[in-house]
Amino acid sequence: QVQLVESGGGLVQPGGSLRLSCAASGRAVSSENVQWYRQAPGKGRELVAVIGHLGTSLYGDSVKGRSTISRDNATNTVHLQINNLQPADTDIYYCNHTMYWGQGSQVNVSA
How far apart are CA 89 and CA 77, in angstroms? Predict the structure, then answer.
């Protein structure tokens, strides 16, 4: 059984930073791509970042230049650091690995 558990969300002031984590069990995150998506209620899902099984990374336009996706093989965890957060970044952030999804981590950016 594969499980993905996101953590690290919360309330942040504009200009602040967050580090989201996706802890996996049951499958090595290094075996396939891991994606971070975000979605607000009633809106479509947006790809935020991808880390490939070889360690390469891609970012969505909305976070490019202020985000870093990384992988810790020892803890089987993928991290997503987002800097200079703005209210438009308020969303639920989901981790995805093959067919598996986490439960989501809420990020709220507000003064």
Answer: 22
Spatial separation of the C-alpha atoms in residues 20 and 72, rounded to whole Å: 13
Q: Which residues pair with 86 in a beta bridge?
A: none
For 96-108, what is each residue's pLDDT tens digit? Answer: 999 999 999 999 9
CA distance 26 to 65: 32
The 10s digit of each residue's pLDDT in 27-44 is 999 999 999 999 988 889
The amino acid occupying position 27 is R
3-state secondary structure of 70: strand
CA 103 vs CA 18, 28, 57: distances in Å: 18, 18, 23
Q: Copy the structure tokens of residue 95.
A: 């981790």
Query: How many Cβ atoms from other residues are within 10 Å of residue 63's Cβ?
Result: 23
Of 9, 8, 37, 17, the closest CA to residue 83 belongs to 17
